[in-house]
């Protein structure tokens, strides 16, 4: 691929994430590079991805999948549903161009997480960002994620009702920057931390860790949910500001 | 159409009735009433509140979570055509033995109501399309009620009637509360408490174009009933949807409902 071809591809796509493809070439994504870098650190620094199989759900342009590959993951599958399948959406193609430009091997697959089952495969790390807010049925999608996780699920989401100790979630519809020229109305949810803890425990995760978003605070939360099969040594990477919501571990 | 009446004596019928745990109190014969958790008077009030506004004559009705079948029988008595009573949890429960109780009541009442074991989480187009879908007292018993509503939309030709426990009433934003374990009424089968704004949001998102609401006839705002209509609804289905029914899908309706208290 020549630099001219790369520039043409960058200009031909509508970018959701700002990816640095060359020292002086950053895609003009909706999410700025600085925020993505901070999120990458928050999401992935606690984990040793060397040799890991990683599935990303809601990959957008694959920023975190590419980061996982850079961090030594053996296999990375980047998936998205709405941003890759709505009429006019070109984010999957953009992801493939980015992976090609960076010479990083990342598989891409348009996929509705509600349809995930164990038949799809098994991954040491499953990563899902902007999760609840883009799903009409996050309960079903969480089950899908659980079915393909064999160690750790890392989930980032919009939150709401933070002052209420009751587990709950609120619904909303909002314009997301993909699909048609003016974006698409997407219906989704915002849970609070007590609900996330309950849902993750009900799915069999016996250790759940939490931290606020690195730049947006408690408006968004990051959860790392470990299955009983995940060794305790994995917890060592989760230093402050991470807190263990299940300490002592749930039975 | 009615079926041949049962040949059981009153004493034999009472003996059979005692084999089951009843939820619906129903007079099966003069002087022979099932001893259910819900009294006859309350059920009569609910029947009038839930079904009274609609002309069911000749229309097909499916009752999701029918248990002992009270509302299925009521729909049939109100002139419905095909009526299909469905349940799974209470029909398979070793103490409730809901299906046997339903069949005993149906046979005794001589009503042509079909029964089908069906879990709401497994409903799909194979069950067929129904003019009216009754979803009474089930939403909050489901871990994933969103999936169930989506499935019910797929089998509703005209009207989905949802009756549910409610919570988060002070909040004008759409939301629902989760109940871990048995913290709601010491019943581990209770999972969610939605508020009216959320029910409106979900029903509109699923493609229902009109949504009406009323409080429970005796329990007030603690439970709500939603009549959600598809674009294909026939004018003749609705007899009267005046107060206490509220047109919920107009601007400010949820806020007005909350202000009314």
Could you characterize what this model shows?
The complex is a heterodimer of chains A (251) and B (261). With 251 residues, chain A is of the alpha/beta class. Chain A has a single domain, classed as Vaccinia Virus protein VP39 (Rossmann fold, 3-Layer(aba) Sandwich), CATH 3.40.50.150. Chain A has helices spanning 3-12, 33-44, 63-70, 82-85, 91-102, 138-148, 193-202; strands at 20-22, 25-26, 53-57, 75-80, 107-110, 123-128, 149-158, 168-176, 184-191, 207-213, 217-226, 243-244. The N and C termini of chain A lie far apart (53 Å). Chain B has one domain (39-260): Vaccinia Virus protein VP39 (Rossmann fold). Helix content of chain B is 27%, strand content 23%. In chain B, a hairpin with a 3-residue loop joins strand 10 and strand 11.
List keywords for this structure.
heterodimer; A: 251 residues; alpha/beta; Rossmann fold; 12 strands; 29% strand; B: 261 residues; eight-stranded mixed sheet; two-stranded antiparallel ribbon; globular
Total E-strand runs of chain A: 12
Return the domain count of chain A: 1
For the record, what is the CATH homologous superfamily label of chain A? Vaccinia Virus protein VP39
H/E element order of chain A: HEEHEHEHHEEHEEEHEEE
Count of spatially separate domains of chain B: 1
Largest sheet, strands/sense/barrel of chain A = 8 strands, mixed
Under CATH, the topology of chain A can be stated as Rossmann fold
Q: Structural class given helices, strands, pairing of chain B?
A: alpha/beta
The major β-sheet of chain B equals: 8 strands, mixed
List the helices and strands and how they pair.
The complex is a heterodimer of chains A (about 250) and B (about 260).
Chain A: H1 3-12, E1 20-22, E2 25-26, H2 33-44, E3 53-57, H3 63-70, E4 75-80, H4 82-85, H5 91-102, E5 107-110, E6 123-128, H6 138-148, E7 149-158, E8 168-176, E9 184-191, H7 193-202, E10 207-213, E11 217-226, E12 243-244
Parallel strand pairs in A: 3-4, 3-6, 4-5, 6-7
Antiparallel strand pairs in A: 1-2, 7-11, 8-9, 10-11, 10-12
Chain B: H1 10-17, E1 27-29, E2 32-33, H2 40-51, E3 61-64, H3 70-77, E4 83-87, H4 89-92, H5 98-109, E5 114-117, E6 130-136, H6 145-153, E7 156-165, E8 175-178, E9 192-194, H7 196-205, E10 210-216, E11 220-229, E12 246-247, H8 253-260
Parallel strand pairs in B: 3-4, 3-6, 4-5, 6-7
Antiparallel strand pairs in B: 1-2, 7-11, 8-9, 10-11, 10-12
């Amino acid at each position: 691929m020549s630099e001219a071809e790369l520039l043409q591809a960058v200009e031909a796509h509508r970018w959701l994430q700002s990816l640095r493809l060359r020292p002086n070439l950053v895609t003009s994504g909706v999410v700025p590079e600085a925020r993505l870098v901070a999120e990458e650190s928050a999401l992935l620094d606690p984990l040793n991805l060397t040799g890991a199989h990683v599935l990303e759900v809601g990959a957008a342009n694959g920023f975190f999948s590419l980061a996982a590959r850079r961090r030594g993951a053996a296999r990375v599958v980047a998936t998205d549903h709405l941003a890759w399948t709505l009429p006019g959406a070109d984010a999957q193609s953009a992801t493939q161009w980015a992976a090609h430009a960076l010479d990083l091997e990342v598989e891409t697959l348009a996929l509705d997480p509600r349809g995930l089952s164990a038949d799809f495969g098994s991954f040491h790390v499953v990563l899902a960002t902007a999760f609840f807010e883009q799903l009409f049925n996050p309960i079903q999608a969480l089950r899908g994620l659980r079915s393909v996780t064999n160690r750790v699920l890392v989930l980032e989401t919009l939150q709401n009702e933070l002052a209420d100790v009751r587990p709950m979630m609120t619904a909303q519809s909002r314009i997301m920057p993909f699909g048609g020229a003016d974006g698409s109305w997407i219906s989704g949810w915002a849970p609070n931390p007590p609900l996330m803890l309950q849902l993750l425990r009900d799915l069999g995760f016996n250790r759940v860790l939490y931290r606020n978003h690195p730049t947006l605070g408690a408006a968004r939360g990051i959860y790392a949910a470990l299955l009983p099969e995940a060794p305790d040594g994995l917890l060592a990477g989760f230093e402050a500001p991470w807190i263990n919501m299940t300490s002592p571990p749930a039975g | 159409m009615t079926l041949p009446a049962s040949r059981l004596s009153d004493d034999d019928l009472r003996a059979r009735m005692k084999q089951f745990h009843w939820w619906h109190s129903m007079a099966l014969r003069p002087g022979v009433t099932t001893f259910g958790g819900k009294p006859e008077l309350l059920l009569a009030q609910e029947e009038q509140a839930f079904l009274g506004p609609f002309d069911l004559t000749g229309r097909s009705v499916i009752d999701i979570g029918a248990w002992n079948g009270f509302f299925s029988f009521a729909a049939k008595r109100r002139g419905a055509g095909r009526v299909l009573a469905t349940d799974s949890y209470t029909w398979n429960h070793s103490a409730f033995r809901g299906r046997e109780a339903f069949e005993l009541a149906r046979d005794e009442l001589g009503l042509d109501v079909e029964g089908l074991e069906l879990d709401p989480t497994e409903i799909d187009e194979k069950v067929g399309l129904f003019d009216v879908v009754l979803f009474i007292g089930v939403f909050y018993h489901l871990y994933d009620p969103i999936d169930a509503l989506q499935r019910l939309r797929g089998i509703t030709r005209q009207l989905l009637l949802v009756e549910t426990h409610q919570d988060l009433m002070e909040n004008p934003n759409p939301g629902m509360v989760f109940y871990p374990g048995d913290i709601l009424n010491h019943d581990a089968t209770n999972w969610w408490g939605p508020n009216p704004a959320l029910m409106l949001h979900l029903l509109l998102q699923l493609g229902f174009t009109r949504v009406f609401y009323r409080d429970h006839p005796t329990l007030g705002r603690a439970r709500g009933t939603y009549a959600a209509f598809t674009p294909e609804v026939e004018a003749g289905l609705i007899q009267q949807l005046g107060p206490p029914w509220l047109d919920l899908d107009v601007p400010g309706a949820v806020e007005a409902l909350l202000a009314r208290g």
